[in-house]
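Reviewer comment 2.1 asked that we show a complete input and output for one of the modelled complexes. We chose the flavin-adenine dinucleotide case, as it is the one discussed in the main text.
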Amino acid sequence: MTAPISYWHDSLEPGDTLTPRPPLPGDRDADVAVVGAGFGGLWTAYYLLKADPTLRVVVLEAETAGFGASGRNGGWCVPETGSPLDVLDREGGAGTGAAMLRAMHGAVDEIGAVCAGEGIDCGFAKGGALWLASDARQLRRISRRHAMLVQHGLGDAYALLDPVKTVARVNATGMYGSIFTPHAAAVHPARLARGIARAVERMGGTIYEKTPARRIEGRRVVTASGTVSANVVVRTTEAYTASLEGHDRMIVPVENFMIATEPVPDHLWAEMGVANRELFEDSPVMLAYGQRTADGRIAWGGMGASYRMGSKIAPTPMQAPKIAALLRARLVERFPMLRDIKITHHWGGVMGMTRDMRSTVGYDPATGEAWAGGFGGAGVAPSNLAGRTVAALVTRADTDLVRFPWVNHRCGKWEPEPLRWIGVAGTFARLRMGERLSQLKN
Ligand SMILES: Cc1cc2nc3c(=O)[nH]c(=O)nc-3n(C[C@H](O)[C@H](O)[C@H](O)COP(=O)(O)OP(=O)(O)OC[C@H]3O[C@@H](n4cnc5c(N)ncnc54)[C@H](O)[C@@H]3O)c2cc1C
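Response of the prediction step:
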C-alpha cells in the first residue's frame, strides 16, 4: 500500500475521500483566477467572495486542495510577521512590527471563528505555544527574543516562564525556561485546508483540481486543458512556484519532515501535561516542534531543511526514514516517558523561501498580477492575514491591512544554478555546524 501524503491526509473529516474535483474542462473567463489551493490561495478566494459574492473566482490546483505544505505541516497556528519587527518598524514607522504581530494574533482568532462559522472540524484548540530552552545557550537565546518583544511593547502577550512554570504546562526534561504566548492554536491542517475549499465552493467559487498551470501570461493562466482569462491572477504556488514557466528564481522549496505517534495513553499524557493542547518547540537552531493532536497523538516535526538542485521537489509521498528516526530520538530525549511509543506515520513537505527570507503579498492593478507567499516554516496563521490582504487590495477596500510593509514587497530573485544550490545548501550546512559547535561549547 502506498503511504498516505501525511498523517493528516490519513485522518480527514469523515466522508472526505480525497477524490479530486474535476479539472478545468476548457477555456473560460473569470474575475479572479487563483493558482494554487493551499492556505494562501484558499483564504484569498474565501475573502474575495466574502467581500463580493458576485465575483467569479476560479482556483486552479495542480493536485488536490491541501496537497502542499498546507495539508502537511505541524498545525502550529502561531503569530509570525515573516520579517523582523525592527525591519517592519524601519519600513512602516515605529510600532509597525508590533501592530503586524498583533494582527497575526487576530489571524489566529479569525481562523478559529471561521472554523466555528463554517463548521470546519479541524480540532482548533487555542492552548497557546511554548518555545522551550533545554540548555543555558537556548535560554540566552529565548531571553534575548523575549527582551526584544518587550521592547516592542508586546510584553503582555509573551511571558518568559521559569523551569517550574514551563514543566507545569509541558513536562519536558532538562528545562531551563520557555517563552509562552496564549495567542496560538493547534489545528489539523489538512482538515482546515479542505474545509476552507468546501466553504469557497459554498460561496460560489469554483475549484479545478489536477489542473497544473503551465504559465501565467499577464491576465491569462495557461494549462494543458484550457486557458483562464481573468482580470486578476493570484499566484499562491509557494514552494512549487518554479513549476510555472519563468518563475524558477522566485521561491525555493526547502524540505521539512514530520512524524506522528500512535495515540498516547492517558496515563502518559497525565505525566506529560500539555493539558490545553499547548504547542511546544525545542529551540535549537534546527528546531523541532510538536502538538498534541485532537485524537491524542503527537505530531512532531522539523530537523529537515534540505534543498535539491534546480528547485526540484521529491515525489509524494515524501519519505525520509533517517530524519524520522532522528525526530523520534529527539522526541524521546525531551519526553523519556514516550520511549516505547510507536511512530505510525512519517512524511515530508516543502516550505517556500524567498531570496530575502521575507513573506510578501501584493497586487498590481496595471498588470492584474497578485501574489502571496514566502511563508517559510510559518504560514498557517500568516496565510490567513495574507488572503485577507490580497482580497482587500483587489477589491480596493480601505483597511489598515493594506498598509503593512509586506504589501508589494519585492523579495529579489534567487541566483541561477548552481549558485542557488551552493547558497541555500551552504546556509543550512552552516546552521547545522554552528549548532553542533555551540552544543560542544555549552
Ligand atoms: C513539513 C512542514 C511543516 C510545517 N509546519 C508549519 C507549522 O507548524 N506552522 C506554520 O505556520 N507553518 C508550517 N509550515 C509552513 C506552512 O505549511 C506553509 O507556510 C503554508 O502552508 C503555505 O501555504 P501556501 O498556500 O502558500 O502553499 P502550499 O500549501 O504549498 O500550496 C501551494 C499549492 O499550489 C499548488 N500548485 C503548485 N504549483 C502549481 C501550478 N503550477 N498550478 C496549479 N497549482 C499549483 C500545489 O499543489 C499546492 O497545493 C510547515 C511546512 C512544512 C513543509
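The chain has a mean pLDDT of 95. We note this here for comparison with the apo prediction described in Section 3.2.
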